[in-house]
User: Fold this.
Amino acid sequence: MADKTRYSDEELEEFRQIIIEKMALAKRDYEQMMRVLMNQDSNDVDDTSPTYKALEEGSATQSKEELISMAARQQKFIQGLKAALVRIENKTYGIDRITGELIPKERLRAVPHATLSVQSKMNQKK
Assistant:
């Protein structure tokens, strides 16, 4: 059998469903992080306890910075998933952008926005 140069429409549809599910979860998590950052879900004592606030400010700042970093990563992940959906539409999804070979299905199921096989990624890091 000759090597495949792209995934079939049925396979692409399977990946589309995986990506849509992951994107829904990622968007939910991102929105939750943003609500926390904007204190929309808070029953906090920020405005009623200045002493408590002064003691906790350093910890809160660190937590907020970590949350901002996590939200930025989540946003990047969502963008990667959106780009993967575009590649599915173009029927270029699952093709290693360095070698032009198909990325194994197992990798795409685990990392649906991948544009490199594990081998290409390792070679790129060297």
